[in-house]
Amino acid sequence: MTLSESAEQLEKSDPELARYNRQMLWAPIGVPGQKKLRQSRVLLVGCGALGTVLANTLGRAGVGHLTIIDRDFIEINNLQRQVLFDQQDIADQLPKALAARRQLARINSEIQVEAVVADVNHNNILSYARDRDLLLDGTDNFETRFLINDVSIHLGIPWIYGACISAMGLAMVIRPGVTPCLRCIFETSPPPGMNPTCDTAGVLGPTVNVVASWQAMEAIKLLTGNVNALNRGLFSFDLWDNRYQQLNVARARDIADCPACKHHHLEYLSGKFSSSTTTLCGRNAVQISSPGGQRVDFEHIAAGLRAVGNPTFNKFMLKCSITQGRGERRREYELTLFADGRAIIKGVNDAAVARAVYAKYVGS
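Predicted structure:
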């Protein structure tokens, strides 16, 4: 029986697999690989540029259970590269994770998509990562990537790193005990403001697609059991200058005195470097986390904000533009408040000022 005949017979007995016919015709996947994909459980951390391409690709590929966790909301400048969102999502004021789930339900209603609107941190990441087959990096900062790296080591779960800026990209498969970890390659994260971001240096849509497609391909290899086909290096490219490199990092763990995978000092998972405020580099914004994570009463807060702005809210988040002072002391902020008390305050880079705005209009 040929692979094509086997796939056709399975489709008749299991019609849900019909959409994956072309994928199953690829011999390294076939029917057994497709079944493994359907049984797999994946955690995607971050649903921006990389995350939306990853979620879209793996959702269409038939990954059975996908958990998407993201802390942010959708802005008009996201639509240039974040492929699961559209203008209606902005009008509906949907957080990214929920908008992604809504779109994926239209694409493939046969998979389970769990949307979590939260800031991933050392207090909650283990609850999301346990019992997953793979962790995927859709983030835009080293602090969260090092946190994922620590969780990967702690739980023994592989993860796939990805990063892009302008026309350049990096990606790497990290398997605890098999490959070097991220801190073997990058010992420390750059200080805030020193690492270019898409908000300061720009990013081209094709760059995002190349990095995320590379990540998705490696994810499919891993989830279908094709570990021998996995890329074993650090993939680097510059699409504008037509430069592509495969960096051999196999000896990085032996050379580096890595605190994470060699000494098992999981400093990010322990909370050593955590903060209740995070400056969102290049965005002129600060995120403030509510320590207790108590749910807030949007209606009550909106009533107080009407004296200084025109707040709008739904069950997911509240938004309000706030103007303080006059003349040279005039300051304009945009407050986005989430149901768990977390807020993103635009128009400020100073964490102390952001905390003062939060305390004044939300509460301390």
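Summary: Residues 90 and 160 are 29 Å apart (CA to CA).
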